[in-house]
Please model this.
Amino acid sequence: MSNLVDYLLDLAADPDRCARFKADPESELRYTALSDREKSAIATRDPQQICEAIADQSPDTGIVLQWLFSVFNESGG
Amino acid sequence: MARGSLIVVGSGIAALRHATQEACFHISHADKVFFLVVDPLTKAWILRLNAAAESLSIHLVPGKDRQESFDEMVERIVAAVRDGHRVCAVFYGHPGVFVQPSHMAISRVRAEGYEAAMAPGISTEDCLVADLGVDLSQSGYQCYEASNFLVCAKLPDVTAALILWQIGVIGQVKCGIGWENGLQILTERLLSFYSAEHQVAVYEAATLPVCDTMVRRTALRSLPNCPVSPISTLFVPPGRQSTLNSEMLAHLQAGIR
Model:
């Protein structure tokens, strides 16, 4: 399991820590073991970028995501 | 051999945060867990609870018929029940809302004489009520899949709130065709019932803990310019207040005396 997944699951389990992250992402990320790429992805707070960063290590949910978005793209929406 | 059974549970919308105690229990205690979720965090959470859990995503092949994919998923779930396993199937959100394979699997398993049940989960609708701060019981509400709303020429009750699902994939899900200007067509239809200035909201629930819920409020006439995604939902507040039926009111008051 990737560091990024572990980090996000820890945040999900701790709403106070999650609130601290949202208030000051830089401080919260400073002492994590995340790679620079993972830090950049999470700092965007953009779900697609974060999911893509995780999906690199979790290809099959990437497929579900792609399938979902391919439906969207085919619709031209 | 133990007799097989099936429980279908939902992961909720936000990974881990929306999981019910009931869902966690079943995922942890099942012999076989199958899952279909849309974000890698939810997958990681499921694998933490049951390391042998198997994804159903291999049945989703781009270009493959959606119904064929669903049939394969259902067959895989039902086969495990037949083999005598205690099976748990996990689907994104509420497992009974916009999840055809969950209902199909339960029907098939029951038809073959095995026990099957569904446990409720948190749906987008639940998140919308909380994030938009609306009490749908005040005006009443109606909800439709957006393409279905258009194709079946549904007539909205403008005195009640209206929720339209999947406004970012209009024409795709039900019909297998894409409408390039689906949002424009939907807006034109809604303008038959609501004023151009009526304020509506495009809503997307937050799935990851670090992300915020997305709410874009706009006048109805500007809806076609609103960015949407496959998980966008449209909330249309009532266009006007209900009128009281004075005859019925008098009838009820007479009954009280």
Q: What stands out?
A: Helices of chain A lie at 3-13, 15-23, 25-30, 36-44, 47-55, 59-75. Chain A has a mean pLDDT of 77. Residues 53 and 67 of chain A are 17 Å apart (CA to CA). Chain A has six helices and no strands.
